[in-house]
Amino acid sequence: MTTQNAAAPETAAPDMGGLTRRQIKRMKRFDNPWRNPKLIWGAALLLGIVALGLIGRMFWDTDMVFTGSGLPRQAPVGFENIRGQIGTWAHPLGTDVTGKDILALLIVGAPNSLYVGVLASLIGMSIGIFLGFSAGFIGGRTDDVIRVGSDVMITIPPLLILVVFQAAYGDISLTIMAILIACFVWQSPTRLIRAQVLSMRESGYVHMARLSGASTGHIMFREMLPNLVPYLFGSFIANVTTSIVTAVGLEVLGLGPQRVPTLGRVIYDAINSGALIQNLWWWWGIPTVLLAVMFIGLLMVNLGLDEVSNPRLRRL
Amino acid sequence: MTILDFKDVSIDFPTSKGVVHAVTNVSLSVDKGRRVGFIGESGSGKTTTALSAMRMLASPGFVSSGEIHLNSLPQSNLLSLSSEEMRNVRLSHISYIPQGAMNSLNPVMRIERQIWDGIVAHEGSVSQSELQRRSDAALESVGLDPKIVASLYPHELSGGMKQRVCIAIGVCLNPDLVIADEPTSALDVITQRHVMQTLRDVQAEIGAGLILIGHDMGLMAQSVDEIAVLKKGELVEFGPVRQIIEAPKHPYTKELISSVPLVGGESFLDPSTASGTKPTEASDPTPLLELRGVSKSYGSLTALHTMNFSLDGTVPKIISIVGQSGSGKSTMGSLMLGFNPPSTGQVLFKGQDINRQSASQALAFRKEVQAVFQDPYACFNPFYRVNHALKFPFERFGLSQGSDHTRQAMEEACKAVGLAPETVLDRYPHQLSGGQRQRLIVARALMLNPKLLIADEPVSMVDASLRATILKNIHDLKDQHGISIIYITHDLATAYHVSDYVMVLYHGQVVEAGPPMEVIGDPKHAYTQLLISSIPWPDLDRDWGSSEDARTALNELAQIEGRHDAIFRGEIPGFSLTQS
Amino acid sequence: MGRIPASYLINRVTTLVLTVLIAATLIWIIPRLSGLDPASAALGRMAAGGGSVANADQILTQLRESFGLDQPLIVQYLLYIWNTVTLDFGLSTASFPTPVASMIANALPWTIGLMLVSLIITFIIGNLLGALMVWENTPRIWKVAIPSAMVFTSIPPILSGLLLMYVFSTQLRWFPLSGPYGLNVEPGWTLDFATSVLYHGFLPALSIVVVTFGFWALGMRGLMITVQGEDYTTLAKAKGLRPRYILYRYMIRNAILPQITAFALKIGMLVAGQVLVERIFAYPGMGKLLYDAILTQDYPVIQGVSFVIILMTAVAVFLVDLIYPFIDPRIRHGG
């Protein structure tokens, strides 16, 4: 079946008649895989959240994340709270039970959550690339140890080990949390890269590079790595998602950084203060929706990258 | 009476660059009980045409005009059937034997169940004992023992057995037409003969028409009654096999026939160049390449038995290593390239153990030993333009005197292998055909001017019409550039023409070795004889023998196993080979 | 049927033992790295959190004993490993002197019940939908509807839990806000109790299902596309088999194999997500136990719960690995 598909374009000169412009436009997507609507939409959502953090700081007073910045339990603009008070532009997204401004919490908290995810994933990827290449290239004992190690570690839920850690150490900073999470997100990239390196090592072009007297470094970074890029991106994004899920999970359990506003922490406070029963929906609802947007953005980027690295996923 | 008629069939594939007309206005008929061969190169539309009769074109292809009639149906126009009606036609009226014997069976289902589900899908509920009886009969008809095979899973069968199971499935409902899509392309010559003869016997027994898709004129000559030659989606010639083989009308058909290399036939190499052999500069007593007591095993499996081999590079030579899959020929290639250390012994290049070299020695070794591999599609990194594969080693080995010089060297090398530099060098690999890529790899070897070239099945994945050209390019490396060549192949005919010395390997052991005139022209060892007699000749008067012969041959093969009786048929200067 | 290659079995048992051992070691080592006397540190935090501690001395002695602090480090470690693998986690400090093991034993059935139901439903629905995304005979409406549902895919269950709870419990009041069963029913093997449990378990299970089925669906989609291009699928079609039969016996049957391996690898993540859902719905499982223990700084309970969840995960992975050879003949015959 594949031979036909590959061979068909060689047979005769294509003729552009008989196709609607719309069909041609849709097929053009095959020519440049990076011009993928999912990828673009996903990236736009994520950039939107980053922009909220950056631009928000310029136009909004982020000191309002502290207790008593405004009247407690204020509803967002256009809504009213149980006591019938209408939301004001002083706190466009309302305030929590201690008077913290929700908008300010979002402006500070959303980038924090992304920061933890990206940092943890970057560290995890670096470990994964290092171990994956080592296992694939050195082979033998090294490979066995790395393979069994990642098999074992992949089944241990990071959240639980982190809970144990936090319970013993108390407060931690965002960066420490990211590093801790990174200890649990290197396994999938390691396995992925190991498998790819093992198959690429026997590929014709790596053999050709060896015949060309290429050094191991050249083979790894100049011949193999460029072909891994879509996989690495995909794995990176998946890891950002995992890291944020873990970080939010910790925060919602009341662990994680105690003094830095994060979206998970806001939700923790809301649940703890009975926001669900008191119908203070903006308090937990808006951060939840923002996190959901973040995850949807990450998912779309990941789906888009899948289609880049596996053309068979692309459909007409 | 014709069973299948293609009437003016055209098939289109819409792509981003416009509509590709994969098949244009093909009309032909298949008679009941007759065998018709569809021959052509990749992209000729032969498979597409045949699959259109199954209504199983790969998406987004479709039949844009014409009619296909299966005359055993009350309503014969296949294209007007509903999809449920078409489903009922498949297998019971037209069956299909696929190309990839290795992956055509469901890996998680026992063999007999894969026959049963086909029967049940067409006949509704059938009693268990009846199913059992019919699957046993189907397996017996293709020479498999149902007691052993029926309850196995596909991965427990060999390639030849899997392909015979596919034939059993294809004929179990006595269809009117069988379409076999290169059924033996993944098999070696000995198994190929057995499978083809099984197919022929079964087809004759049920009296069905047969469409055999292939690219090998020899195989066609031995297997079919009529041949349809396709080129770029058009039917260029259609007629009885004898007329096509002996008096082809269309130049393309002539080209296809002449591209099959024959043992003992006229050489496809231009004899005028053969005299230009020039000895390399200094005569050094150390052999160029030496295998000293080398063997290789993977766990308990011995891929290559202990062997001594010495090649003197003073006068360039082509040494052919011939064997079927699993013979250890590719293992020898990778040992010589230092990709794989031997289990015992040493591989020496100019007296230096290639697995114990300093970095600078290793670089010098790489510069002098180059290779051409089987798969031209895999040899280029898809991330770079193709010139990366030529430029990088040239600069790495310090041959370049600046980028203009590199460019010039690349262009010269391209011209030397018959490629126009401007049309290939700045392309990405996927934009070039297999033949172009393989010639670029030869050009690369030429540019680097090594002392030794290992050519591992360099033409087995290239279309037949280009094989001769590429082999000639490789042969020129010896004659005009003084490069010694180790030619690794499964194809005795090409080995016969290009080489100075041939060694035939079987299960990691040399069974016969010597100059090609003796070893291939007049084989003495039973295995070599078997190989030669299994080659399908594009010559109707040189019959392949019956399926009985093929079975005897396989039994003979079983007896050869484990015997150590290499026959050495003479020496040539500058090369020696022994095996203990 | 029962021929599992010995090397395969040894491999899996080693992984199981290593996982449990590494998890136990991490749990032991982490508090020790903080350089504090874990017993008094724990007690100090307890005192800081809860004001006066009634039986402080008693608790301190018990903690010291359970940590084996008067022994050399290696003995402490071995003692701890022994206690852990025999599921003896000491006594809870918050509700002293309840043994941690019995607290876990009470919570475990709820967690396992919720987990089995939600994981199995998710796995089945997810894979089926993923397969339908690729199958050529899927009705058009499904081909549009399923990809749209993928939007929820990577949201953690805790967020979906919050949203579902808000809509269905606090606003619509269709489902109870929290708890495992109604206050007015007696636990026991009665129909009332069973209905109540199902009624209360519905939202927590749903909040896991709606956001995790997409993970399986997407994975299945990729695998199905591969299987669709396989020669055996082409041959199945050429054999004139019914499309539905090809879907189940040829395509899904083969595509599901890597999914089952992935199931084993993902169990850890899914269980962690469930822990959080339990906490939101105040479901009396391991998640709630863990959350309460964090609030009260009940270190032995935290240790115990974490270890048991990791143990459950590892055992689940092991069981999946044991079943695997029976659904893939290539493993069974050592191929």
C-alpha geometry of chain B: globular
Distance between the termini of chain A: 18 Å
Q: How would a textbook summarize the main sheet of chain B?
A: 7 strands, mixed
- How many β-strands of chain A, per DSSP? 0
Strand order of the largest sheet of chain B: 15-16-17-12-18-19-20
Query: So how many helices of chain A?
Result: 12
Helix share, percent of chain A: 55-70%
Low-confidence stretches of chain B: 272-280
Estimate the strand proportion of chain B: 15-25%
Rg of chain A, nearest Å = 25 Å
Runs of chain A in which pLDDT lies below 50 for 5 or more consecutive residues are: 1-13
Number of helices of chain B: 21
Shape of chain A: elongated
Protein model, in words:
The complex is a heterotrimer of chains A (316), B (580) and C (335). In chain A, 68% of the residues lie in helices and 0% in strands. Chain A is mainly α. By secondary structure, chain B is of the alpha/beta class. Chain B is globular, with a radius of gyration of 26 Å. Chain C is mainly alpha-helical and 335 residues long. Chain C is built from 13 helices and no strands. Chain C has helices at 6-33, 38-50, 56-67, 73-85, 100-134, 140-149, 157-171, 191-228, 231-238, 243-280, 286-295, 299-327, 329-332. Chains A and C meet through helix 5, helix 6, helix 10 and helix 12 of A and helix 1, helix 2, helix 7, helix 8 and helix 10 of C.
Give short descriptive properties of this protein.
heterotrimer, B: 580 residues, seven-stranded mixed β-sheet, 36% helix, C: 335 residues
Write the layout of secondary structure elements.
The complex is a heterotrimer of chains A (316), B (580) and C (335).
Chain A: H1 2-11, H2 21-28, H3 37-59, H4 102-138, H5 140-155, H6 158-169, H7 174-182, H8 187-201, H9 204-211, H10 216-252, H11 263-272, H12 281-309
Helix pairs in contact in A: 3-4, 3-12, 4-5, 4-7, 4-8, 4-10, 4-12, 5-8, 6-10, 8-10, 9-10, 10-11, 10-12, 11-12
Chain B: E1 2-15, E2 18-31, E3 35-39, H1 46-52, E4 62-70, H2 83-89, E5 94-97, H3 111-123, H4 128-141, H5 146-149, H6 159-171, E6 177-181, H7 189-206, E7 209-214, H8 217-223, E8 226-231, E9 234-240, H9 241-246, H10 251-258, E10 289-298, E11 301-311, E12 318-322, H11 329-336, E13 344-349, E14 352-353, H12 359-368, E15 369-372, H13 387-396, H14 403-416, H15 421-424, H16 434-448, E16 452-456, H17 464-481, E17 484-489, H18 492-498, E18 501-506, E19 509-514, H19 516-519, H20 526-534, H21 547-560, E20 567-568, E21 575-579
Chain C: H1 6-33, H2 38-50, H3 56-67, H4 73-85, H5 100-134, H6 140-149, H7 157-171, H8 191-228, H9 231-238, H10 243-280, H11 286-295, H12 299-327, H13 329-332
Helix pairs in contact in C: 1-4, 1-12, 2-3, 5-6, 5-8, 5-10, 5-12, 7-8, 7-10, 8-10, 9-10, 10-11, 10-12, 11-12
